[in-house]
Amino acid sequence: MSEKSGSDSPGNADWLTTSIGHSTPETITVRGRDLASDVMGRMSFSELAFLLASGRAPSEAEATLFNAVLVSLADHGLTPTALAARLTYTGAPEAIQGSIAAGLLGGGSVFLGPVEDTARFLDEILSSIPSDQRSVDSVLEATATTAVQEALDAGVRIPGLGHPVHRETDPRTPRFYELADELKLSGPNLRLLEFVAAAHRKATGKALPINGAGAAGAVLADLGFPPALTRGFALLARTAGLIGHLAEEMENPIGLRLYKEVDARASRNAEPETP
User: Fold this and answer.
1) Domain presence at residue 270
2) Residue 180 is assigned to a structural domain of this protein
3) Structural domain of 143
4) Chain segment 77-129, per-residue pLDDT in tens
5) Are 70 and 233 in contact (CB under 8 A)?
6) What CATH number has the domain bearing residue 180?
7) Which residue has the higher pLDDT, 166 or 128?
8) What's phi and psi for 225, nearest 5 deg?
9) DSSP designation for 9
């Protein structure tokens, strides 16, 4: 049998390349642009993130909406992700990367994950609709109604709806819709999410608001990003929040006091009752 030919043959390394960036002794290039002369001082960090992920620079309107997504997901207070980062820093202050990683590892189905879960749910619905009908409200409404009912019958939670704190309106959601309309970037995912919320309300009698994470997922999908990437942007945004928490932890630490408080309460609860 002859050796495999082509790019996968042994010794052939033509596949070993990337369009993201490379360096030479004199230059650094990202997505075909000279980092020093074409990017630094010319593009914001969020615009660079968009470029790296999509291969193209965003329009001014896209950059504004994309930046709004990142800002909306940066921090929500002493959430489990922030606590994980602070407590890890308490145990390993010499390794801030471990603290940030600990916080990011908590980005799952409850925190940050709904960004991706919502984008996937909407993508599954839209994939059943011909592309030339995805802007037709009656089609979106009918398809959303069917998808929601099927999910409810299967006992599956509808992503993007409800919030443990913002019971009536998540303040980020109307702003997303307002911005998308102003920038003329409102797409089928954002519109479909409204029909999903309405269908859920009609089927269950529960008026769950569209949460900010779900709206963010819809925005990212309308900007052209695949669902599998959307959680990555949520983690990118939350990194900024974690750095903020760690900066505060360095100045005004609560990690050790929190540990001692939990330990004291646990110890008291573990003590046998006095006869």
Assistant:
1) no
2) yes
3) 114-229
4) 999 999 999 999 999 999 999 999 999 998 877 777 889 999 999 999 999 99
5) yes
6) 1.10.230.10
7) 128
8) -85, 140
9) S
